[in-house]
UniProtKB/TrEMBL annotation:
This is Uncharacterized protein. One of its GO terms (cellular component) is cytoplasm. GO terms for molecular function: GTP binding; GTPase activity. InterPro entries: GTPase_ArgK (IPR005129), P-loop_NTPase (IPR027417). Keywords: GTP-binding, Hydrolase, Nucleotide-binding. PANTHER family: METHYLMALONIC ACIDURIA TYPE A PROTEIN, MITOCHONDRIAL, METHYLMALONYL-COA MUTASE. The keyword Phosphoprotein does not apply. It catalyses: GTP + H2O = GDP + phosphate + H(+).
Length: 407
């Protein structure tokens, strides 16, 4: 608060000065009215532009200023280590963005800002092309996602790529998740020096987990990982959240084996740039072919997400490695066609906007729920709505009115 008051004081002076000068101009009788008006508008607009950019620079500097010397030193070391590709620094940086501690959150934001400007410079050197390929992998539990990532990740690192794997598992917020299983399933990849595997934090809401995943993607890219795989289970809204963070979204479906494909939400199939039927080996080969045919027909009826790319259905087996390199070929084809058409950059830009609004939504809601004007009323009204004594609309209006009256 103190910082803000200080800056507004500093800005109050030039602003009032400028308006005073413009008012003086109006008072002079020699100039024509319209010339005077244009002059005034031009000066005010250019003032606002410079004011905005000064404010941005100040806001960034202000963020860094509030950090203690020790914190700034720590951030500098973390940033340098991260950019140099030290895994321990990447791990520490992700822990920092996952922290809910306010001071650490602030440090995390400064670090992210540093990584972002490093990114921008690197991308300029790369003729504006993104440095990394972000791929989302979703599918029901047991579809074979982790087994596929182990096999696929190893193939990529052997080809010289640096692969980061981030897992988003909101079910782990309540149940502890399947991390243990995943660790044993990705045993070889987790020992690979060119791969980095990071499970999602086991605490927090989906909103929190997706925020930190978005930030973790930036950090892994800052650490030099050029392929980022984001794995998510097809539960709740997590797959939609992941589809909004990546360049390419792949849906993995098991041929049978106890997991029903009928349960796959239509909406998520529409988000898929590629559908992959897994476990196409042994006894499962025939059902895998059948599912592939079913989805080929189903995709024809669905709304297209891209104007240039037609989603396709492929078959793979992580057990015997079949179809994995063909799949990679298809992914590369997707990336280059989306880059050429400009859709990939457009997708990233609109994702940035979605990300900002998600953050605002999350924070506004938190602010609302904790506001003294409504905090105590919420459980009482919630209960009244639950037992049918009060309509949800009226309860919401009451809470919103108390909030806006006291804000
Ligand atoms: N036959 C066969 N089984 C597989 C294949 N990929 C995974 N599985 C098995 O499917 C089960 C679930 O795999 P997992 O990778 O943990 O699925 P996730 O929950 O989607 O990550 C495990 O028992 C795997 O051994 C495959 O290509 N062929
Ligand atoms: Mg898994």
């Amino acid at each position: 608060m103190q910082g803000i008051a200080h800056h507004s004081l500093r800005f109050a002076h030039p602003l009032s000065c400028h308006f005073r000068r413009n008012i003086m101009l109006f008072a002079r009788p020699v100039q024509s009215c319209s010339a005077l008006f244009e002059n005034c508008i031009w000066k005010t607009n250019s003032f606002i532009t410079s004011f905005r950019s000064r404010l941005c620079v100040l806001a960034m500097a202000q963020d860094a200023e509030v950090l203690t010397d020790k914190e700034q030193r720590l951030l500098k070391n973390l940033y340098t280590g991260l950019i140099e590709g030290q895994r321990s620094c990447l791990a520490e940086a992700i822990t920092l963005v996952e922290s809910t501690h306010q001071r650490k959150r602030r440090m995390a934001q400064v670090l992210l800002q540093m990584v972002l400007s490093h990114h921008r410079k690197q991308e300029q050197l790369n003729h504006g092309k993104p440095l990394a390929f972000r791929v989302g992998l979703s599918g029901p539990p047991g579809a074979g996602k982790s087994t596929f990532i182990e096999c696929f990740g190893k193939m990529l690192t052997e080809e010289g790529h640096k692969v980061a794997v981030l897992a988003v598992d909101p079910s782990s917020c309540t149940s502890g998740g399947s991390l243990l299983g995943d660790k044993t399933r990705m045993a070889e990849l987790s020992r690979d020096m060119n791969a980095y595997i990071r499970p999602s934090p086991t605490r927090g809401t989906l909103g929190g987990v997706t925020r930190t995943t978005n930030e973790a993607i930036l950090l892994t890219e800052g650490g030099g990982y050029n392929i980022v795989l984001v794995e998510t289970v097809g539960v709740g809204q997590s797959e939609f959240a992941v589809a909004d963070m990546v360049d390419m979204f792949i849906l993995l479906l098991p041929p049978a084996g106890g997991v029903s494909c009928r349960g796959i939400k239509r909406g998520i199939v529409e988000m898929a740039d590629l559908v992959v039927v897994t476990k196409a080996d042994g006894d499962l080969l025939i059902p895998a072919r059948r599912i592939q045919t079913e989805y080929v027909s189903a995709l024809k009826l669905l709304r297209k997400r891209s104007s240039t790319w037609k989603p396709q259905v492929m078959r793979i087996s992580a057990k015997n490695g079949e179809g994995i390199s063909d799949l990679w070929g298809k992914m590369v084809q997707f990336q280059s066609s989306m880059l050429t058409s400009g859709e990939l950059i457009a997708r990233r830009r609109s994702q940035q906007r979605v990300w900002m609004w998600n953050l605002i939504q999350e924070n506004v809601l938190l602010h609302f729920k904790n506001h003294p004007a409504v905090k105590n009323q919420i459980p009482i009204l919630e209960e009244k709505v639950r037992i049918g004594m009060l309509s949800p609309g009226l309860a919401a209006d009451t809470l919103l009115k108390s909030f806006s009256d006291r804000s």
